[in-house]
Amino acid sequence: MSAIGRLFSCKKPYDTVGTKELFLAAMRENCSYHAAHCKPYREILETAGFSPDDLKTEEDLARLPVLPTRYFKRNQLFSRPEKRLPVKVTSSGTGGAKSVVGFDVKTLWHELKMAVRICKFHHLWSMKPTRYIIFGYRPRKNSLGAAKSAFAFTLLAPAVSRVYALERREDGFVPDLTLLREKLVKYAKGRLPVRTMGFPAYTYFLLKEMQAAGIRVTLPKGSMICLGGGWKQFYAERVEKEAFYKLAYEVLGVDEGHIVEFFGAVEHPILYADCSAHHFHVPAYARVLIRDVDTLAPLDMGRPGLVNLLTPAIQSMPLLSVMTDDLGILHGEGCPCGNKSPWMEILGRVGVKDVVTCAQGAEEVLKGGTP
Question: What is the average pLDDT across 115-124?
Fold first, then answer.
């Protein structure tokens, strides 16, 4: 079995210590594959003076050329023929351009094993029929990654029904919060648990609307509020987690222990689910670096900077090391949940202009490899 296959067969989803050597081997293997099958990426490596064989220690991961997520919004790098990629997803494109990421069968298998183990670890599987309310898009052919991820979430427990907040209109997607409010009131009178999933901004807006209208219900036992996709263009309206949890309990009767948040990116399809302390621990299938916003130099634990995500999961595209426009801090210890894996604290996002400035060092590397 390949190093990548062995890594994604790891039964302890947060064993970052026990998988150190295996992770490095998988990254070398993945880097070698893309260097051999993706000419633009090979040129990027050559311009940076980097070889897959240079990945000998964990410190070498920081030397791997890092590609900003915005690079994939303008360029497509494939290491396999597009016709052999059965699944394609796009980013939300809140800045206008969208990334298109394709998945081959082998990668999808790795993703499935990872998702099963992480969801099992966080007790998200259930055999009880469930009603779903999705604060997001209805999935369509070649739809957004957020839409497909939300639909995949509805497979964690048998779906009795699915209701979506965003419907397509002539002028774009429009949230129908009135419909969702009516559904929540109706479902609160039944016995089946309810799971919500999607953008926290829309979830918050609905909760505030219900609070203002004096509507308070108690969802059936086993109900959950799940959040994913970030606040996007509504970042100015973002509230502290504690305030959100208090509001959710007041309006829907769902306590903090039944609220789960996810973090991820189309360009880095690794599942990050928060722990009981609401921290995003790094799975064994990935690593996280924090980089200085001016120099892109890797920073020590506890210092804020740009979030750099690494994984050998994808064979269809060279997504080994991508830099997001998220600002964060990596913590090495101290989480009260007991998980020993490092955990991320997401501070916010930088604007598009800031990303351009912060990523200038990376862009210099990419000049020789832009297709």
Answer: 95
Tell which wins on pLDDT, 257 or 371: 257
Cα–Cα distance, 18 to 132 (Å, whole number): 37
DSSP state letters, 96-135:
S---EEEE-HHHHHHHHHHHHHHHHHTT----S-EEEEEE
What residues have CB less than 8 Å from 61, skipping those under 6 apart? 24, 27, 55, 287, 289, 310, 321
What's the rounded Cα separation, in Å, for the pair 331 and 90?
A: 30
What one-character-per-residue DSSP string does 210-240 give? HHHTT----PPTT-EEEE-S--GGGGGG---
Contact present, 150 and 159 (Cβ < 8 Å): no
pTM of the predicted structure, to 2 decimals: 0.88
Q: Among 323, 318, 267, which Cα is nearest to 45's?
A: 318
Residue ranges of domains in the chain, CATH in brackets: 3-83+286-369 (3.40.50.12780), 123-263 (3.40.50)
Q: How far is CA 315 from CA 147, 236, 281, in A?
A: 23, 37, 24
